[in-house]
Amino acid sequence: MQKLFKYQIALIACLILPAVCLGSTLAHTPEPLITINARTENVPDTIIKAEHGISGGSCLDFTDPASFKPIVIEDDRVLDELSGITSLTITGWMRRQMSFDDIDVEVPVMLNCPGHFYITFGRWGRIGLVMTGQDGRRKQIWSGWINIPNLLPDDRWVFFAFTYDGLKSGPNAAFYYGYQQYPVELEAYQPADSGQVNTDPDEMWTGEKKVLSSAGTLSDKPAESLVIGARDGSGSQPFKGMLDSIRIFASDTDSSAALTRSQVESVRQNDLGYDAVKNYIIEKAEKELLESQRQWDIEQKYWSDTLNLHQVDSLSHVFSDIAPMPLLESEPVSAAKGSVLPLQFAAMSREKAKIDAAVKVSAPVSQDGSVFAGTIKTYQVKHVPVEANNNGGIRTTISSRPPQIWMEHITREAPFQLAEALIETDTLDLRENNMHEIMYKAILLDIHIDSDCEPGIYKAQIEIDTGSETISRPFEFRVHKTILDGFPRLNNVFWFKADPKNLTNGPLPEMWSPRHWQLIENSARTLHSFGQNAISISLMTHRDETVNYIQTILKKDGSYDFDFTMFDRWFETFRRCGFEYFEGICTFGGHKASAQNVKALDESTGKMIDIFTDGSSLEDWYDFVGVFYDHLYSHLKERGWDKYYVQAILDEPTDMANYRRAYELTKKHMPGIKTKEACGNADYSDYIDIQVFNYALAKESYQRLAKDRRSQGKGVWFYHCASPYPPYPNRHLDDPLSCSRLYPWLVYSLNADGYLFWAANNYRGADPYKSSIGPLPGGVTNPGHPPGDDWMYYPGPEGLRGSMRMVAFREGVIDYTLLDMLAEKDSERADELVNKIVRTPLDYEKEPGLYHRLRRVMLEILDN
Question: For residues 463 and 469, what is the distance between their CA atoms, to the nearest angstrom?
Answer without folding.
Answer: 11
